[in-house]
Amino acid sequence: MCAFPVMQKLSCLAMLVSALVGCAWGQTYEVSVAGGLTRMSTAPLGSVSAEDPLDDDTSFKKNAYGYGGRLTYNPYDYYGHEVGYRFTRASLRTSIPDADGNRTTFEDKVAIHQAFYNFLIYFMPKGERWRPFITGGVQAFNFANPHITGWTGVATRNYGMNYGGGLKLKLFNHALVRFDLRDYYTTKPYILNPQDITNFSGWQRHQEGSVGIAIGF
User: Fold this and answer.
1) Angle at Cα 79 formed by Cα 139 and Cα 37, nearest 5°?
2) Is 23 a domain residue?
3) What are phi and psi of 171, to 5 degrees?
4) What DSSP state is assigned to residue 193?
5) Can you give the pTM of this predicted structure?
6) Cα torsion angle, 122, 123, 127, 129, sign
7) Domain of residue 99, residue span
8) Residue 10 belongs to a domain
9) CB atoms within 10 A of CB 30
10) Which of 36, 112, 145, 160 is deepest in the core (most CB within 10 A)?
11) CB atoms within 10 A of CB 119
12) Overall number of domains in the chain
């Protein structure tokens, strides 16, 4: 007569263990850190000169490096949400004319702070060892000023959109490595003077590749 309650308890315990193992393996939540290369847009940003501006007086150099972190929530097998922060230090060069019109080129590192939200679509369900995905989202950049004498630009906060994809590879339970590629579009920073406002585009494009380690639970 006591066998049935014992069997019921064992069944409940087995179901609970199974559920816990499933949650751990499925990794609904992820915390990750990553670093990598950013290919900055070299598009002209304008000039600090109001009297003799040239569009290509100021621009970023192509390659920069950054690092950051992400918080990921995967409520469903094939969909997820992600927020994150990335810090990039990029090289900015600018040419400043003197009183005689002769231009001198200066260069300095600038800090770029980035916050973003992305929606993820997976090609494999939770629990699979390989999980390729595509993603799209929005972001905000904060471009700090360079330390250059004669610089008259202003630090700006710029907004835009991004898309990309990546791969998550499970190393073992609770740990995975991820590879990400992103393509960012954002408005131009610093509010500099254009040579010809009618031909001056207000958008920039940055590309980012990163490798990271994540803890899932």
Assistant:
1) 40
2) no
3) -80, -50
4) B
5) 0.84
6) negative
7) 28-216
8) no
9) 21
10) 112
11) 13
12) 1
